[in-house]
Amino acid sequence: MTRVVQLTVSRMSGPVSLVPRRGTKVGAPSYAVRMPATTTGAVIDDSAPSRTALVRRARRIDRILAQAYPEAKSELDFDSPWQLLVVTVLSAQTTDKRVNAVSLTLFARYPGPLELAEADREDVEQIIESTGFFRAKTQSIIELAAAVLERFDGQVPGRLEDLVTLPGVGRKTANVVLGNAFGVPGITVDTHVGRLARRFGWTTHTDPVKAEHDIGALFPKRDWTMLSHHLIWHGRRCCHARGPACGACPVGRICPSYGEGPTDPVAAAKLLRDEGRA
Ligand code: SF4
Questions:
Q1: CA-CA distance, 23 to 149, in Å (whole number)?
Q2: Whether the CB of 116 sits within 6 Å of ligand 1
């Protein structure tokens, strides 16, 4: 028979419930602790939610993030699928700001695949040097230009299966281009999306492709691109890898990882960042 034990804890706005776990392993706690709203408004529930509850909570989190970041979009500057493809390759291991700072010069001098395929390597290296790994990146974008020119007549293809055949283009880059330049829904599993999806309990995988499938199964396809932006913006501004600002988090009330960072609102607010990757 199910037994729910309720305890009242001072400084909290309601009772703590101990909810029996089903199928508990020998030696493991047989109760999950369900906490009420604390003084910072968080509700912690470490019991595994049903599939329906998981989907509902996931979509609610996305709705809250959409309200918190109404202007969420790619923070890379681009005017065409080609430019987005190049700046996404350049954005590896650096900030969008640094890429935006060099891309104007790069595209002014080498506007399209034709010009970049024949570019002076040293000149390109010099232009993009501040983005790091500039020799490898120069090699990548020149090869990319040649491949787009030779195999796709100078036009960036709008299909995932074509994009991933281009040198240096994986699923992550392909989904960025599809979602933001072609309007084809895609989930971009970068470091932020992967980390947040695990904190929200949407996936346990660190493999981006497996995580992408787990996340995609929780949302309608049409929401995938904006969902990626919401998660990336939240990851950059609030839910950091180290020291997430839980006490100042708009989804703190329903986040199963609430408490991974400071829950004190004042301490948490100091961790918030105003803008994208610094
Ligand atoms: S900041 Fe804390 S409460 Fe907010 S999403 Fe991240 S782990 Fe959850």
A1: 58
A2: no
Q: Is the CB of 268 under 6 A from ligand 1?
A: no
Q: In the chain, where do the E strands start and end?
A: 5-8, 15-20, 31-34
CA distance 87 to 92: 9
d(CA 246, CA 211) in angstroms, rounded, equals 23
- Report the nearest atom of ligand 1 relative to the CA of 259: 2
pTM for the whole structure: 0.79
Compute the distance from residue 263 Cα to the ligand 1 centre, in Å: 9
pLDDT at res. 274: 79
| Structural domains for the chain | 37-68+185-278 (1.10.1670.10), 81-181 (1.10.340.30)
Which phi and psi (to 5°) does residue 5 adopt? -100, 130
Question: How high is the pLDDT of residue 45?
Answer: 53
CA distance 147 to 169: 11
In angstroms, rounded to a whole number, what is the distance separating the alpha carbons of residues 186 and 179? 5
Q: Residue 275: pLDDT band by 50, 70, 90 thresholds? A: low
Among 231, 260, 271, 272, which is best to mutate for testing ligand 1, by the most ligand atoms less than 8 A from CB? 260
Ligand 1 within 6 A of CB of 261: yes
